[in-house]
Amino acid sequence: TLNSFVSTNPVFAVDESGSFTLAPGASLTLHVTFTPPAAGTYTGKLYLRSVSASELIAQDVELRGVTGPRPYSAPLAAERATGRFELHAGTPNPARAATTIAFELPRASRVTLEVFGVDGRMRERLLDTVLPAGSHERIWAPKDAASGVYFYRLTAGSQVATRKVVFLR
């Protein structure tokens, strides 16, 4: 049961109050209001907590908001990590200079994230480390990659997922 929502940056505020009970494997969507004082990029963490008299359990969610040159206020959806192994589509795709690869880990794992060409040869290893459970992302900005189709593969323990990204030079 989640009953406390705390943001580390005051530009992000949770619109919900009360408590929410999640079944195993379920997800929860919270509405977060983003109200920056000026143009720029803002980051923070949202701590979803289960607080009782005898324990405190917390899950953090990364928050990021970007504004243009004018004052701006708009809702930003923050989703709790799915609790599943998941590899998301790169954004943008097709990409010109770089693409952001996001993924979810249900538990701490040794993770490798590798990029391959259509010929099956590995072009670059973006990660080879142990990461905690939760949401993660890495940016792939190849220096010498030609236009074409590439595949990125995420391995965490015995789980493997692959996605495609197109680069246009």
Draw up the topology in text.
Layout: E1 4-7, E2 12-14, E3 29-34, E4 40-51, E5 56-67, E6 74-79, E7 86-87, E8 99-105, E9 109-117, E10 122-131, E11 134-140, E12 148-156, E13 159-167
Antiparallel strand pairs: 1-4, 2-3, 3-6, 4-5, 7-8, 8-11, 9-10, 9-12, 12-13
In short:
The chain is mainly β and 169 residues long.
Could you characterize what this model shows?
The structure is a single chain. The protein is an all-beta fold. The chain is built from no helices and 13 strands. Strands 10-9-12-13 form a four-stranded antiparallel β-sheet, with no helix packed on it. It is globular and about 55 Å long. The protein starts with a strand and ends with a strand. About 7% of the residues have low confidence.
Morphology call = globular
Based on CA atoms alone, the radius of gyration comes out at 18 Å
The strand order across the widest sheet is: 10-9-12-13
Q: Treating each run of at least 4 consecutive H or I residues as one helix, how many helices?
A: 0
From the helix content, strand content and strand pairing, which structural class follows?
mainly beta
- The mean pLDDT is 79
Low-confidence stretches: 70-81
Task: Compute the number of strand runs.
Answer: 13
Give the SSE string.
EEEEEEEEEEEEE
Distance between the termini: 49 Å
- The level of helicity is under 10%
Largest sheet: 4 strands, antiparallel
Beta content: over 45%
Task: Label this structure with key terms.
single chain; 169 residues; 0% helix; globular; three-stranded antiparallel beta sheet; mainly beta; four-stranded antiparallel beta sheet
